[in-house]
Write a structure and sequence with these properties.
Blueprint lengths: L4 E7 L6 H12 L1 E6 L25 E2 L12 H17 L3 E6 L2 H9 L9 H13 L3 H9 L1 H6 L5 H14 L3 H4 L10 E8 L3 H17 L2 H10 L14 H8 L5 H23 L5 E4 L6 H12 L2
Parallel strand pairs: 1-4, 1-5, 2-3, 2-4, 5-6
Helix pairs in contact: 1-13, 2-3, 4-7, 5-7, 9-12, 10-11, 11-12
């Protein structure tokens, strides 16, 4: 039998240095970076989503970034299909895929597979969107009656996920939470090495604050203004991402910049905390207590990969 192909996964909260570590490892080990982030798949939203600028990629190919337009829907299932194609192509080139995982659901879809759920119904979705526009929170109440478990894990404001869960219930007659627990086909033929970055919480929060400042200094507010001027709808999915709605409010005169910065920092810390909670449940992770741009952490990661 052929030896399993290798896949390195770097996971951890936002601002922990996943991209920096992935690039360093790719340089040392002959790899290419595969992004696993639900925000970076959207084109035009660059600074606030933390995309690595081309000038900072050091010649390392980056995959699964800028896949769709802001008005398009992109799912975990679609991510899995694209990722499988990219992994195959990287191995055919004799390179090592190094995946940077910020979105736990996308990582789970790739490694564990997804349940066999019904295809989308635009008719059902259209009716549900109309109801959502008339009464915010109404759809989440409906979902709570149809599938209490799914409702408990989906934020009321995440209309896209709420609609999908209701749609699954109506089309299949089964709860989305039950479907997702069975019928999965995981990633086969790969030896997966998971490396987790877990800096001290205070240090992580400090870096988050500095990162927000750096993003603003890099022109984040100007980027938001340009997106709006070019006709990208404020109701599109990417404007729900961290910081984009707050900066839109600044441009609209609804809030002051200082208040927006405070909100962005707080929201990013809460997001990092949710990521940590999710990734703690991952099995067989080699946890490293530091940031990915630390040379000592890089050396530990190299040793882990070499020993597996």
């Amino acid at each position: 039998m052929n030896a399993p192909r290798r896949l390195v996964v770097i996971l951890g909260p936002t601002a922990s240095g996943k991209s920096a570590l992935a690039i360093a490892l790719a340089e040392k080990l002959g790899g290419e970076v595969v992004c696993c982030d639900s925000t970076q798949v959207y084109r035009h939203f660059n600074i606030g989503t933390g995309k690595v600028p081309a000038a900072e990629q050091r010649g390392i190919p980056h995959h699964l970034v800028d896949l769709v337009e802001p008005d398009e829907i992109f799912t975990a299932g679609e991510y899995r299909c694209r990722a499988l194609e990219v992994l195959e192509a990287i191995h055919m080139r004799g390179k090592l895929p190094i995946l940077t995982a910020g979105t736990g659901l996308y990582l789970r879809a790739l490694l564990e597979g997804l349940a066999d759920t019904p295809a989308r119904s635009e008719a059902i979705r259209g009716r549900l969107r109309q109801r959502a526009s008339r009464s915010p929170g109404y759809l989440h109440k409906i979902l709570s009656r149809l599938d209490r478990e799914s409702a408990a894990h989906i934020a009321p404001a995440d209309t896209q996920k709420v609609i999908r869960a209701i749609e699954i219930r109506l089309l299949s007659g089964e709860k989305a939470s039950e479907l997702h627990r069975r019928g999965r086909s995981g990633l086969a033929g790969y030896l997966v090495v998971k490396i987790g970055l877990m800096p001290a919480r205070a240090a992580l929060y400090g870096r988050i604050d500095r990162r927000v400042t750096a993003m603003l200094e890099s022109g984040w507010l100007d980027e938001v203004g340009s997106l709006l001027r070019h006709g990208i709808a404020p109701a599109s999915k990417p404007f729900e991402f961290l910081g984009y709605s707050q900066l839109s409010d600044v441009l609209a005169g609804k809030t002051e910049m200082d208040g927006a910065i405070k909100q962005i920092r707080q929201a990013t810390r809460r997001y990092a905390k949710r990521q940590i909670t999710w990734f703690r449940k991952e099995r067989a992770v080699h946890w490293l207590d530091g940031f990915g741009d630390d040379t000592a952490i890089e050396a530990e990661a190299v040793d882990i990969i070499a020993s597996t």
